[in-house]
Each structure stands twice: as structure tokens, then as C-alpha cells.
Amino acid sequence: MSYKYLFGPVPSRRLGTSLGIDIIPYKTCTLNCVYCECGNTTELTVERKEYTPTGKVIAELDDLLSKGPHIDYLTFSGSGEPTLHKGLGKMVSFLKDRYPNYKIALLTNGTLFYDPKVRIEVIGCDVILPSLDAGTKECLEGINRPHPNITIQRLVEGLKELRKEFKGEIWLEVLIVPGMNDGKAELEAINKHISEIRPDKVQINSLDRPATEIWVEPVDQDALERIADYLGGEIIGRPSSIREADSFDESVLERIISTIRRRPCTTEDLTKILNVHVNEVNKYLNYLEDSGKIESERRERGIFFKMKR
Ligand code: SF4
Fold first, then answer.
1. Which of 192, 195, 214, 260 is spaced 20 to 30 Å from 272 by Cα?
2. pLDDT tens digits for 210-269?
3. How far is the CA of 217 from the centre of ligand 1 (A)?
4. Ligand 1 contact, 252 CB (< 6 A)
5. Topology of domain 249-309, CATH
6. CB of 81 closer than 6 A to ligand 1?
7. Cβ(278) to ligand 1 under 6 A?
8. Measured from the CB, is residue 32 less than 6 Å from ligand 1?
9. What is the pTM for the complete model shown?
10. Which CATH code is given to the segment(s) 6-243?
């Protein structure tokens, strides 16, 4: 059986060997973050519906997991916001009932947890990894460019309610965008929200690769460490560390290298040419860029990657 909705397993810096479950079409999201590695959101929405057939996703999971592969986490993630899918609860329940030995993770922007139905659907997950990049309305609008229904109050209240109801772990990610959320006032506002949300972990991240918007830059390591200290968080490890992971697939790496050696490609080109999921391609590009082996160039059609001379 070939899989349309599953990708990997991929080496994840936070989740070890992670099988990606992508249930939302490219690129449907409640936000349009300036740093998104998947490009601009083409469908900005808060409408929950069955974006992909729930039965087919379950059939793929059943087929793959019945072979008993080694996987640390089954991870709902992908190129959009997974909580937009109305069948998410059904998929989580299936996995819990049928494959209780596998742990379930949810990578989410956290914006829909104000809806009690969404909170109930994710209750069977083992770990939820939401994001909170802003403390104020202005910053949320500047960095995350949300759907008009999403406000900072709704986002924070939703996460606080989730904390009350959800018994698993919450690892809250804060991605730092210099000039936007690294100033004293914004960090104070974020810190206040964190103290109310009470996540199990705070994970601080910085841009690895060229973002959707040209002006977004990575934070220097000293500043990142100061911010992590202030927010009581840990810095998410560098992409170069993932090569030791069992799930690091040298053949995917080699295919990417040999393709961009012939001609520079965008992430989307590589996804189509190699038939590899966009998130998986992103992991290997992150690794290659962090290791100084490739460089990128912004052109009219997008960001192109090529080997360094
Ligand atoms: S929430 Fe995630 S998928 Fe959506 S725009 Fe932001 S980074 Fe991209």
C-alpha cells in the first residue's frame, strides 16, 4: 500500500523518530506566519471540516502500524493546521484503542483550543506541542497574521482551558523573530501568558531557513540563550544533530543532493520530483543548510536551494 497521508518516519529534534500524519491540504491554516517554511497560507480559515477522508487516513495507519515499526511518536502535523480536521478525534480514538503502545503527538498552532469540541478530540494525545509567539494583539497580527476570528485573548484562554482538561504533556514553542517578539515588553507579555498556561516545557526556537517573508532573520545564539533563560525554556537543538537519529534516511539526503546538484530547486520542486512530503524535504534541507553544504537564493518563483561551491 502506498501512503498518501503518512510521511516518514522522520528524525525530529523534539520527538525522536516521528511518523507524520498529514490530514490538511497544502496550505490550509488559521494563521499565515511570516516564518512559515511551507510558504504563504492559501486558505486562511477557521472552518472545521473533513479536509481528507478520515476512513482512508485510518486505513493507512492500520496498514502501516500492523507491521509493528519502531516509531517514537505518531505525529499529527503537516503543511497546515491539523485541528481544522473534524475527524481528528476519531483518528486519535482509533490509535488509542487499536495501537495503545504507540505515543501520539499533535503539532498545532493552538489557535482552535477555544472550541471545547477541539479540546475533547485531542484528549487522547500523549503530548501536544502548541505555539505562542506573541504576547500582544499587535505582535500576533505582525508575526502570525491570523484569521480575523483568532485573537490573542482567545488563543491564550484556549491554551489555559486545554491545560485544565488535558492530562498529557504540553510543550509550548516560542519562535523568536528579531524586531518583533524579542523586545522587553513583548517578552514580558509572553512570559505572563506562559505563567498562566503552565505548560510542562517551554521550547525556544529560531528560524533555520529562509522564511516566507524576506525580512525574517534568525536570532543570534547569545540572544536566544538570554531569551530562553528569561522564559524558563530550553532551546530546540540544531538541525545538524539529527543525522545520528535512526530514522535519518541517507537515501533521501542523497536524492536531494543529487537533484540540487544538477539544478537549483525550491522545496516544492523537490517534493514533486522526489515524491517526498514537504515536511520531510524541509528536515533534510534544514540539516544541509545548518551543515553549510547548501545555500539559498530568493527568486521570483520562490526560494531556490543549491550546493555550495
Ligand atoms: S501555523 Fe504553522 S503551518 Fe500555519 S502558517 Fe504558521 S507555521 Fe505555517
1. 214
2. 677 778 888 889 999 999 999 999 999 777 777 877 788 899 999 999 999 988 999 989
3. 17
4. no
5. Arc Repressor Mutant, subunit A (1.10.10)
6. yes
7. no
8. yes
9. 0.89
10. 3.20.20.70
